[in-house]
Predict the 3D structure of the following.
Amino acid sequence: MTDISRIKDDLVTANRILAYHHVVDSFGHVSMRHPTNPDHFLLSRARAPNCVEIGDIMEFKHNGDIVGEEVGKPYSERFIHGAVYEARPDVMAVVHNHSPNVVPFTVQSKKKLKPIMHMCAPIGTDIPTWDISHKFGVTNLLVTSMEMGRDLAETLGQRTVALMRGHGSVVAGKSLRDVVFTSVYLEINADMLIKAYQLGEGEVMSMSEGEVGVATKGRAGFTYERGWENWCRLTERPYYPMEWEMGPGFSKTDK
């Protein structure tokens, strides 16, 4: 039987972890596909992520309609999440954020955001930028309708990350742990890459597509749980263990 209360509690934890790592501040949000109804998703009411509690978690249809009790005002950009789930049956969790080291990469094209450290590999080598003005003209840059959300989801395609010009990013994951892990290391990678660009005129060596593939394939339960357990401790949140299986690519002596 699915323990929906524990799942919602992990979603609260995801909010706290993202806030701890400055991926979100008073704004930004994380959702997960409903564990028993794939046409629905779970997302907090509109509240600062570090303040989210289990009673704030609401259920939505892909089109943004509320299912069940309305415990508060929903996020106006819930359509980002719904559109990604609608377009990508493989996606189990979504983060939208305005992480400060990522935003600069959304407004210039000369120096691209690319992975430079193995822990950051799953952000991918092909990170597109969605510009809301191309289709919707002058706006406040917020995604406030399914039409906008679907256009963003189309830019994301089958990728893990899409940047949003002058706004932030959307991150897709195969699980809640996966999307949080990727979002945290997306911000870390952006910070490191900015520093690398500032070191001088030498070329920055990013990870190759092959290296990204190997590193991403190797991310499994052992990696997720090691990070999640630590982040639960740091945020004083309960840790609910999952499988600690090893992925390929670890030490040759590992059994």
About this structure: The domain at 4-235 is CATH 3.40.225.10 (L-fuculose-1-phosphate Aldolase). The two ends are 32 Å apart (CA to CA). The chain has one domain: 4-235.
